[in-house]
Amino acid sequence: MARVPCDLRFLLIPAAFMFIYIQMRLFQTQSQYADRLSSALESENHCTSQLRSLIDQVSTKQSRILALEDLKNRQDQQLVQLKDLVHTFESKGIAKLTEGGQVPLAAVVIMACSRADYLERTVNSVLKYQSPIASKYPLFISQDGSNQAVKSKSLTYTQLTYMQHLDFEPVITERPGELIAYYKIARHYKWALDQLFYKHKFSRVIILEDDMEIAPDFFDYFEAAARLMDRDETIMAASSWNDNGQKQFVHDPYALYRSDFFPGLGWMLKRSTWDELSPKWPKAYPYIRLSISMAMENHKGRQFVRPEVCRTYNFGEHGSSLGQFFSQYLEPIKLNDVKVDWNAMDLGYLTEGNYTKYFSGLVRQARPIQGSDLVLKAQNINGDVRIRYEDQAEFERIAGEFGIFEEWKDGVPRTAYKGIVVFRIQTTRRVFLIGPDSVMQLGIRKS
């Protein structure tokens, strides 16, 4: 029995080694967990730091947002005050311009933007003939934007009312490459015409641009045109412009024509027509779209009246159209210098029921020519001539030979009436360029 303790001592040695091994493993495991815990704590501290940084950034941005909202509110208040001030100026100006109780025949608005020198020349030209009859034709300047030179120049005139169109909405073009300026022009026109027709209740408006001079009989012409438009609802607008009004292509200051192409550049519109146009006013290119969308798609037999000799002269070499056509077509325009007594003129031939007969009679009397050397042939014939064209390409070729506008807009040659373009050659003689559909519409022989 005395050997048992000795055997136990041998067993204690491996047990001690086992215990030591287990302790070492436990220590190693605890060290690994401690390292992981330290790494986790470090990651947590980093995340906490990043979170605090993000919170600081959000707080900073919120402060900026609040500051911007405060700035916007102040600007909105300033805009309201500015509109109230403009309204006050308009009210005082209109009261002064219409004093005496006479109902105006038409408001005259000069559309302006950023050309103060051009505007001054235009206003001086208009006032020269408008001042004696100011109560019949109240004068306005409508400025698009905030060009200070234009605004300051406008406010120096006591004879007119100043309006300002402030448009902060961004422009999104419908097609790549389109000029933003044309979209802004369209918005400005709609705003100004809405103001004059609906806010100020004028029955007619004459629209000018800030790069125009007017003829001595400008207002008498539009007074006669107003009577004609009241008499004939098929006349959408009256214009003072002829695209082929260059000195070499005009002669008769008394001659007027109907046209399917909208001439623009000094024109008069009735409120009843604007009631139709305003809801569908185009986003851009108001002149082109007006002539096509209204005069063609929904034209109901309606056309425009234009003179042979222009009653406006466009001197705007620099503008949104970038001087397009200026030297060739605009600079040589003849501005009428004859004082026509329009009150004594019978314009009944321009009404829908009479004009087709009148105009087709002129065309029938013209001598037909064809072939080559058309200009030479026309010059050597004593009297009016007519020339047929079969398509746009042929029209452009013939127009190029004579030097008139070759351009078409959506299937309509400039100045055309039922496909016929008329101009003078060597003063008195007319040249009629006749389209393929004109024969059927006017009953003209194919010779």
Automatic annotation (TrEMBL):
Location in or out of the cell: Golgi apparatus membrane
One GO cellular component term noted in the UniProt record for this chain: Golgi apparatus
Membrane topology: Single-pass type II membrane protein
UniProt cofactor(s): Mn(2+)
A GO molecular function held by the record: manganese ion binding
Isomerase recorded as keyword: no
Domain of life, source organism: Eukaryota
Entry similarity comment: Belongs to the glycosyltransferase 13 family.
Descriptive protein name: Alpha-1,3-mannosyl-glycoprotein 2-beta-N-acetylglucosaminyltransferase
Protein species of origin: Brassica napus (Rape)
Gene: BnaCnng34230D
